[in-house]
Write a structure and sequence with these properties.
Helix 3 packs parallel to helix 5, helix 7 runs parallel beside helix 9 and helix 7 crosses helix 11. This protein is of the alpha/beta class. The chain has two domains: 225 residues, 3-Layer(aba) Sandwich (Rossmann fold); 64 residues. The strands form four sheets. Strands 3-2-1-4-5-6-11 form a seven-stranded parallel beta sheet, with helices on both faces.
Length: 327
Amino acid sequence: MRPAISWAGRSVLVTGATGLVGSWLVKELLSRQARVIALVRDMDPQSELLRSGDVDRIKVVNGQLEELETLERAVIDNEVRSVFHLGAQAIVGAAHRAPIGTLEANVRGTYNLLEACRRGMPDISGVVVASSDKAYGEQTTLPYTEDMPLQGRQIYEVSKSCADLLTQAYHASYGLPVAIARCGNIYGGGDLNWDRIVPGTIRAFLDQQRPVIRSDGSYLRDYVYVKDAARAYIRLAEAMGQSDVAGKAFNFGNERPSTVMEVVNLISGICKADGLVPDIRNTATGEIHSQYLSSERARKVLDWHPDYELEAGLTETVGWYREFLGK
């Protein structure tokens, strides 16, 4: 499909630009010659955004999602046309330990961003909001489809359900041009949350140690490579003018769910870590056992499909961590 907008010289705001997906999204936007403005709360020198030098090619607005005035300044002063809202507290365990901070960032932060964009209308041509498969909560039928109710129960899930519904409300109430991305588990180089299964397992194998598995190893998930996720967000923004895109949610997954142990075994083979048996703790709490998505709507409406199979994505990811860790 041909993009309906040109990125060259276009002012684009990215929240969460120092995070895993945000860093790669900025890289992708810069390759399209967009003028990128990033909302940054904390500068992490290990973030891919900084390590790659991409931070020197963008404008940084310092502040937090909880600050409406900062968001409004970022949108209006920079004549922003497109917005990618990825900023959030994205760690399930941290959300459980610190619910207030999570709700402030994920719920208040989202309605602040949407309100700033509403005030920036009609110049704003599209707002892509990163939701999650966690917004669906636990369902009796899988895979998740976009017409299923959003029924998160745990704190992180509820924060994503709320952010998702708020985004839909701003479209229904004010005509704000929005689209929602519900991705599976996104992995790739630059994820420095070592408690997550992919980076934690890779680091352990490269250090010749046994990886720690918090679950029993049978938990089932969709795994989406970060480059595929970044491309999905951009495709959504490009298609925002379509009547079957604006105001809608889209699932993005590889539609081949894998268990935790399947992922660990793939990483073991790539790292050549024979003999290092995982330490299965089975202590995970507050997590849904099985989650995976149907991406049929994204295939039909957006002509999107993942470019990376899981093993190919993990191979690139291991390469990134070898360089990062000097292994």
